[in-house]
Design brief:
By secondary structure, the protein is mainly beta. Helix content is 0%, strand content 53%. The protein has strands at residues 6-8, 11-18, 26-34, 40-49, 62-64, 67-72, 75-80, 85-89, 105-106, 111-114, 119-120, 123-124, 127-132, 139-145, 155-157, 160-165, 170-175, 181-186, 194-196, 199-205, 210-217, 222-231.
Length: 232
């Protein structure tokens, strides 16, 4: 799977992967190119494996200052804009596959990632959200949700991380710096919310495959409006 490119200061960064075959190892690479000319500036190998995996690389590339972050099968990786790999944090369970798009939440102070739907064959693992030190990848906090399943892509704004649990039909809001739960909303959440000023826009799953969008007022945690968008 390819990664949507990121461009900054005239440099384009993108990731790509190759599946393992009987004749060749699979792997993941991150490359930087001059955005004006296409000239390759550096290529970093992030992972190699003889084993075939459905998931090698997620569409998850995030750039913050002089660091790039990307989700790979071995875990979330931080790479400097000079191409040097800095750290890897293992946020996935053995044998786990993930959604195709799981970018981390990145600020100057913290990196937040999760386990993202942790059903592995017949063994159910608890969903977990991690707060990491951006400099060295050490774990600052973790929050485990044994009563929730189907974690989807995270969203964040104004010091709050929003964790959609699509199987358990709830949205959980955490403090971004310490992981403390601020509130939760029980609703048939169907994806990642979007935050606009003091409004949370949340996709919802209705009966008979119908979908809707709800606008939640953040100060009061009440639904301002809810609009059907039909079958999606």
């Amino acid at each position: 799977m390819t990664v949507s490119p990121v461009v900054s200061n005239g440099i384009l960064y993108f990731g790509y992967s190759r599946e393992a075959t009987s004749d060749e190892q699979g792997g993941v690479w991150l490359e930087a190119l001059d955005a004006a000319t296409g000239e390759s500036l550096w290529t970093t190998e992030l992972w190699r494996s003889d084993e075939f995996h459905y998931f090698y690389l997620s569409d998850s590339l995030v750039l913050n200052d002089n660091q790039l972050f990307v989700q790979t099968k071995p875990g979330l990786k931080a790479i400097g804009t000079d191409g040097n790999e800095q750290w890897t944090f293992d946020n996935l369970y053995e044998g786990q596959q993930t959604p195709d798009t799981i970018p981390p939440i990145v600020t100057d102070d913290i990196v937040v990632t999760g386990t993202y739907s942790t059903s592995v064959e017949e063994t159910e693992q608890p969903e977990t959200v991690f707060g990491l030190d951006p400099d060295d990848g050490t774990e600052r906090w973790r929050v485990t949700f044994p009563d929730s399943a189907g974690m989807w892509q995270l969203a964040a704004a104004d010091g709050t991380v929003y964790v959609p649990m699509v199987d358990s039909e709830r949205l959980i809001a955490l403090d971004i710096l310490n992981g403390e739960e601020r509130w939760r909303w029980e609703a048939p959440v169907a994806g990642t919310p979007t935050i606009v000023d003091d409004t949370l826009l949340v996709p919802l799953r209705e009966h008979d495959n119908q979908q809707s969008i709800a606008a939640v007022d953040l100060p009061t945690k009440t639904v301002r409006w809810r609009k059907s968008v039909g079958v999606r």
